Amino acid sequence: VQLQASGGGLVQAGGSLRLSCAASGPTFSRYAMGWFRQAPGKQREFVAAITSGGSRNYGASMKGRFTISRDNAKNTVYLQMNSLQPEDTAVYYCAADNRYSSRPLSDPNEYDYWGQGTQVTVSS
Questions:
Q1: pLDDT at 104
Q2: How far apart are CA 42 and CA 38, in angstroms?
Q3: 110 three-state secondary structure
Q4: CA triple 11-121-114, angle to 5 deg
Q5: What are phi and psi of 86, to 5 degrees?
Q6: Using alpha carbons only, how large is the chain's radius of gyration in Å?
Q7: How far does Cα 36 stand from its chain's mean position?
Q8: DSSP structure class, residue 53
Q9: Distance between CA atoms of 98 and 29, rounded to whole angstroms?
């Protein structure tokens, strides 16, 4: 499984960005997908996850601002980020696990495949 993340950039506080993660493989619809982020000097942080069945989960500080979705026809998972704040600045990574899961996976150790990351910078 190969993952290609895109959509990062520079945005002012209060603005929005939509990240995309394109995945290879014919069974994308079965993958559990997730987004994580890592700021300089900090540990990787859970952002959002979605199961093959569409169940979602979010990190505490993302609830109400971020939305994860998937388009199985395009082998792509999205992260819509609204009301961005400077503390959201980080490299954002998408991750995939091709084993069935009924719950969204929030532990990075549960994912086998990772994209290269896309930088999100929010200016104040």
A1: 94
A2: 6
A3: helix
A4: 120
A5: -55, -30
A6: 13
A7: 6
A8: T
A9: 9
92: left (phi over 0), alpha (psi -120 to 50) or beta: beta
Separate counts of helices (H) and strands (E) for the chain: 0, 11
Q: Which two tokens stand for residue 26?
A: 């014919």
Residue 72 token pair: 């199985």
CA end-to-end span of the chain: 37
CA dist 120 and 84 (Å) reads 10
pLDDT tens across 64-115, in order? 999 999 999 999 999 999 999 999 999 999 999 988 888 999 999 999 999 9
Two tokens at 117? 């990351």
In 43-117, which ranges are E strands? Answer: 45-50, 56-58, 66-71, 76-81, 90-97, 113-114
